[in-house]
Every structure is written in C-alpha cells, then in structure tokens.
Design goal:
Oligomer: single chain
Length: 281
C-alpha cells in the first residue's frame, strides 16, 4: 500500500521549477495555526531551503540570504540584460543579482529581470515580502494571508500543504474553470487564495498585500511608411532572436504545437535554429 502511494506521488511530480514559503513578522506561528515549517515542492528537481524563526523559503532555483536579514529565492530561467547584474548572476548566482537590484531599486528591481521566472524576497529587517512572476506569466505564484502571515507557492496544492486548514471552494472559480477551461488570474477555485497576474509583483507589508504591474507591453501603429516586405523581414528577425533566447544550452526544449499560426511559426523557427527536427507535442 505504501509503495503504491509513493508511486502515485512520484507520478504527480514533474520536472518543473517552482518555489514556496511563508513569512510572519516575529514568529512562524499564526493566530489560526502553525504554518508547515518544512514545506515540500512537488517536483523532481532538487530544491534548496533557507528558513528562520519567522520565515521559510524553498526553491528549485537559486537562493541566498539578505545581508540585512531574510532571504531571496528565484526559480526558472531569469535573464539579466544589465551587464552589472549579469556579472553578479554569473559569479554568485541569480538570487545574489536579485538581492543587489533590490538593495538599489526596491520594487523597481523587476524591470531588470527578463526571461521566465518566479521570485520572492523576504526582508525581515523591513518586515515585508516582495514577490513577482515574469512578464508573460509562464511561471505562477499563488498566495494567501493566514492571520498575520503570508503564504505563497507556485501551485495551489503546494500552498494548501503549508497551511493548517483548507479554504472553501469558490463557486465562481469553479464556474470559470468549466467555462474557460482555466481560471483567469487573479482568481482561483479556492476562497481566500489569489494568483498573481503576469508582469505583476506583490508587496506584503504591515498586514496588507498590494499588487502592481511592473511592465506593460507597448503598441503603436507604424508610421514609417516601410513596406510590408521590410516589416515582414524585421518580424522574422525578432522571432528568431526570441526563440534563440528561449533555447537552453543543452538544446533540449519542446514546443506545444496546436496547429495554429503562432505555435507553427515558433516550431518552424526552432527547426531552423537546430540541426535536428524540433520536438513538438
């Protein structure tokens, strides 16, 4: 019976990046119970954990302490286009680069982080939590308050395991799932659990959580008078650069091929950039 349970648990675990944790100023205990002090990520990737009396952070990616107290965790494939931050990331890790940007820029640090990522900063000296996900929402982050504690995780099921209680289901969230085949951010199927929207950060401070976007896409009609052929060539070049940046060093990547124009184009560009056929599913 035990081996069957273990096999089922392994099958539910995937090779995916993520993070989870909690924070409460002064103590890990909450008015409504005790947050799990040894959180577990449902992933086959190795994880790292940093914890203190009032916080815990676990990540599949890089993690480091803050000099003033607390920790930084970032998962996924963050990209730093600022040369100084890129140098720090290369030498000391992505979390150290985020810590440096946070020290200089505060909440504006996420304007300097590109790529696909989820990031969380627990700053015990300022008694705050700052977290964000990437511009397109490739990574996710769920969060809730529990008494005067804030809990966060890459998946709702992971958030449930570090809380002492399970929130009630939300009828509107279930309706959204049935109607849209997904639950649009910032909603979830659980009452009192929210999901961070793409290109947004959350700031938890003094018992309040505020969310704000750190990036918005820009669009403007071209008035240059350039021909469709010239604009088409520019589009192809941009697509090629974007796909090239998304291919990891080991060249192991796949594309979801729905048969539509967007996924077919991306898969075609992947084939052009590789000496082998693109893996698609």
């Amino acid at each position: 019976m035990g081996s069957a349970n273990n096999r089922g648990e392994t099958e539910r675990c995937l090779k995916r990046h993520g993070l989870l944790g909690w924070y409460r100023a002064g103590s890990g205990a909450t008015d409504q119970g005790q947050a799990d002090s040894s959180p577990r990520l449902g992933t086959l990737f190795p994880t790292k954990t940093l914890s203190g009396a009032d916080f815990s952070l676990t990540s599949t990616g890089d993690i480091c302490t803050l000099p003033t107290g607390g920790a930084v965790a970032i998962s996924g494939r963050p990209v730093f286009r600022d040369h100084a931050l890129a140098a720090i990331a290369t030498e000391s890790g992505a979390a150290a680069a985020v810590a440096d940007a946070y020290n200089r820029l505060g909440e504006r640090l996420f304007t300097q982080v590109h790529g696909a990522f989820a990031c969380c900063i627990v700053d015990t000296s300022k008694q705050r939590v700052l977290a964000a996900i990437d511009r397109l929402g490739q990574h996710s982050l769920y969060y809730r308050t529990l008494g005067d504690a804030v809990l966060f995780a890459s998946e709702a099921r992971e958030l449930l395991q570090i809380a002492p209680d399970e929130p009630a289901l939300l009828n509107q969230g279930i309706y959204n799932y049935v109607y849209f085949h997904m639950v649009p951010s910032t909603g979830t199927v659980y009452r009192d659990i929210s999901k961070l929207a793409a290109a947004n950060y959350l700031l938890s401070e003094q018992g309040r959580i505020n969310t704000e976007h750190y990036w918005l896409p820009e669009f403007s009609e071209s008035k240059s008078g350039r021909s469709a052929e010239v604009l088409g060539d520019e589009l192809k070049a941009v697509l090629k650069r974007a796909v090239q940046r998304s291919i990891p060093a080991d060249n192991r990547i796949g594309a979801f091929l729905s048969g539509g124009l967007d996924s077919s184009t991306v898969t075609g560009v992947m084939s052009e950039l590789s000496d082998q056929s693109a893996e698609a599913y």
